[in-house]
C-alpha cells in the first residue's frame, strides 16, 4: 500500500494499493497487445488523440494541480502552471508531429536511400516526484505520437497523480493499453526491463537510480535515456544586468522549493560585481515567503517530505563542518510541515564531497571568480553537466561559455527552463539521451533506411 503524506501538514492523505504480480503481468500483456494495433494507426489518429488529451488536461487543471500540491508540496499556482505546460506539450506534438516523422531521402550511388521513423514497442518510464506531471508528459506525448505505448512506474509519494494521468488519458479516448500506470516499488523495475515485451526504458531521477537502470538495460541490450541530477552553474559577469540576474537567481533557486534538476544551484560571480550581486541576491532570498502552498501569496511551499528536508539539512551541516558558512536562511521552519527558509552558502570548499553533490533544496552556493577562465573552471568542476545560465552582454564571452561549459543546455541572460520545442538533457553524470523536440521523439524509434 502506498500512503500519501501532505508535506505541508504532515497529515496522511489517500492510500493507493500496489499492483500485484498478476496485475502487472496483465498490464504488460495489454500494452504489448495494444502496441500491435497502435503501431499501424495513421498520424491523424495519433495527433487527434494528443489534441484531445491536451484539452482534457486543460479542462481539469485545478483538480490535477491540487492533487500535486497535496502529494508533494509545490505551490498550487505552480502546480496548475505545470498542468498547463503539459497541455502545451501535447498540443505541440499534435501540431508538429507529421513534420517530425516525415521520411528523409538522400541520393546514394545507384539510387536513393529513404530513412523512415518507425515505432519500437512498449517504453517503460521511471519517473520522480518533483514535477509529477511534466516529467511524465515530456516522455508520454512523443511516445503516443511515435506509435509506441507507455508503462509508468511513478514515485511512491505521488501515486495519486500517477493514477490521475492514466484516467485523464483514457477519458480522452486512448485505447486502454496505450498508457498504463504500474503501482509498484523500485525493486520490481529490473524484472520489467528484462521482459522481452519492454522495448526501451527512460528514467528521470538520481545518479544511483540511473546507474541501476542503465545496468539492467545494458544487460538486456535495450535503449535507455537517462535524465539525472544537476548542479547547474549560474554565472554573472561584469557586463550583466545585475538587477535582472539577481531576480532570476532567486527564482531559479527557490522554484519548486529548490527541487529541480535544472534549478541553478551554484552562483558563480565575477569578483568585480560580487558584492553588488550579493546585496541584491540576499535581499531577494530574504523576501521569499514560505508557507501554505494553497495560498496564492506563497512563494515557496514545503519540501516534498520530512526525509527530503533532513537530507538537505545534513548536506548543509557537512558543508559547514568543512568551512562553508550559511550567510542567511537554510534553516528548518518551526511548526508542522517540511518547510525550510531560502538560504545562501558562502566560503564553500569546492573540493568537498558535499559541495560536489546536488543540493535539492532552496539554498544557493555562492562563489567568487576572478575572471572568465576561473568561472568556467568552477562551472565544470562537478560530476554533473545538465544545464547552465550565463549573464553577460559580451558576445565573445557568450561564445566562450557556449564552447567551454560542459553541459547539455545553457541559457544566456535568462533562467534555464524546459520547453516542448527544444531538446532537453545533459552530459557527464547528468545522464545521456534527450527528451522533447524532434530529438526526444526519435530517441525511441527505429530509424529504418530503405534503399531503392
UniProtKB/TrEMBL annotation:
UniProt keywords (A-Z) are: NADP, Oxidoreductase
Q: Which SUPFAM superfamilies match?
A: ALDH-like
**Residues annotated as transmembrane:** none
Matching CDD domains, A to Z? ALDH_SSADH1_GabD1
Q: Name one Pfam family in it.
A: Aldedh
Gene3D superfamilies given in the database record? Aldehyde Dehydrogenase, Chain A, domain 1, Aldehyde Dehydrogenase, Chain A, domain 2
| Domain Aldehyde dehydrogenase, first and last residues per copy | 2-450
* InterPro entries per UniProt: Ald_DH/histidinol_DH, Ald_DH_C, Ald_DH_N, Aldehyde_DH_dom, ALDH_GabD1-like, GABD/Sad-like
Start and end residues of each stretch annotated as Disordered: 1-27
Q: Where is the composition biased (Basic and acidic residues)?
A: 16-27
Q: Which domain of life is it from?
A: Bacteria
Q: Which PANTHER family match?
A: SUCCINATE SEMIALDEHYDE DEHYDROGENASE [NAD(P)+] SAD (PTHR43217)
What family is reported? Belongs to the aldehyde dehydrogenase family.
Name by which UniProt lists this protein: NAD-dependent succinate-semialdehyde dehydrogenase
Lineage, uppermost ranks? Bacteria, Pseudomonadati, Pseudomonadota, Alphaproteobacteria, Sphingomonadales
Amino acid at each position: 500500500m502506498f500512503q500519501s503524506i501532505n508535506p505541508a501538514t504532515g497529515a496522511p492523505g489517500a492510500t493507493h494499493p500496489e499492483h500485484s504480480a498478476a496485475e502487472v503481468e496483465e498490464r504488460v500483456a495489454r500494452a504489448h497487445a495494444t502496441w500491435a494495433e497502435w503501431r499501424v494507426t495513421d498520424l491523424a489518429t495519433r495527433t487527434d488523440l494528443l489534441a484531445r488529451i491536451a484539452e482534457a488536461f486543460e479542462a481539469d487543471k485545478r483538480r490535477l494541480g491540487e492533487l500535486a500540491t497535496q502529494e508533494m508540496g509545490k505551490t498550487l499556482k505552480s502546480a496548475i502552471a505545470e498542468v498547463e505546460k503539459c497541455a502545451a506539450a501535447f498540443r505541440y506534438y499534435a501540431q508538429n508531429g507529421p513534420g517530425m516523422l516525415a521520411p528523409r531521402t538522400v541520393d546514394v550511388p545507384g539510387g536513393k536511400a529513404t530513412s523512415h521513423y518507425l515505432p519500437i514497442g512498449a517504453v517503460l518510464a521511471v519517473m520522480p516526484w518533483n514535477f509529477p506531471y511534466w516529467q511524465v508528459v515530456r516522455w508520454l506525448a512523443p511516445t503516443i505520437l511515435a506509435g509506441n505505448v507507455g508503462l509508468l512506474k511513478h514515485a511512491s509519494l505521488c501515486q495519486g497523480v500517477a493514477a490521475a494521468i492514466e484516467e485523464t488519458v483514457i477519458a480522452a479516448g486512448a485505447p486502454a493499453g496505450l498508457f498504463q500506470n504500474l503501482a509498484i516499488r523500485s525493486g520490481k523495475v529490473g524484472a520489467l526491463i528484462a521482459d522481452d515485451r519492454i522495448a526501451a526504458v527512460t528514467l528521470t531521477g538520481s545518479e544511483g537510480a540511473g546507474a541501476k537502470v542503465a545496468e539492467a538495460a545494458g544487460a538486456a541490450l535495450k535503449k535507455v535515456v537517462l535524465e539525472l541530477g544537476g548542479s547547474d552553474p549560474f554565472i554573472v559577469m561584469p557586463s550583466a544586468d545585475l538587477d535582472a540576474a539577481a531576480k532570476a537567481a532567486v527564482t531559479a533557486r527557490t522554484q519548486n522549493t529548490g527541487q529541480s534538476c535544472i534549478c541553478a544551484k551554484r552562483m558563480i560571480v565575477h569578483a568585480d560585481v560580487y558584492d553588488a550581486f550579493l546585496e541584491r541576491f540576499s535581499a531577494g532570498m530574504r523576501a521569499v515567503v514560505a508557507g501554505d502552498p494553497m495560498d496564492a501569496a506563497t512563494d515557496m511551499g514545503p519540501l516534498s517530505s520530512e526525509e527530503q528536508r533532513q537530507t538537505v539539512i545534513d548536506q548543509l551541516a557537512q558543508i559547514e563542518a568543512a568551512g562553508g558558512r550559511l550567510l542567511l536562511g537554510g534553516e528548518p521552519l518551526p511548526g508542522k510541515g517540511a518547510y525550510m527558509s531560502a538560504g545562501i552558502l558562502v566560503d564553500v570548499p569546492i573540493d568537498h564531497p558535499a559541495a560536489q553533490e546536488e543540493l535539492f533544496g532552496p539554498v544557493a552556493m555562492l562563489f567568487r571568480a576572478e575572471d572568465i577562465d576561473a568561472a568556467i573552471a568552477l562551472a565544470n568542476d562537478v560530476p554533473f553537466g545538465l544545464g547552465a545560465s550565463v549573464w553577460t552582454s559580451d558576445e565573445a564571452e557568450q561564445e566562450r561559455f557556449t564552447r567551454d561549459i560542459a553541459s547539455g543546455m545553457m541559457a544566456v541572460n535568462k533562467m534555464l527552463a524546459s520547453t516542448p520545442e527544444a531538446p532537453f538533457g545533459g552530459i557527464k553524470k547528468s545522464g545521456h539521451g534527450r527528451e522533447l523536440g524532434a530529438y526526444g521523439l526519435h530517441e525511441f524509434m527505429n530509424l529504418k533506411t530503405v534503399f531503392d
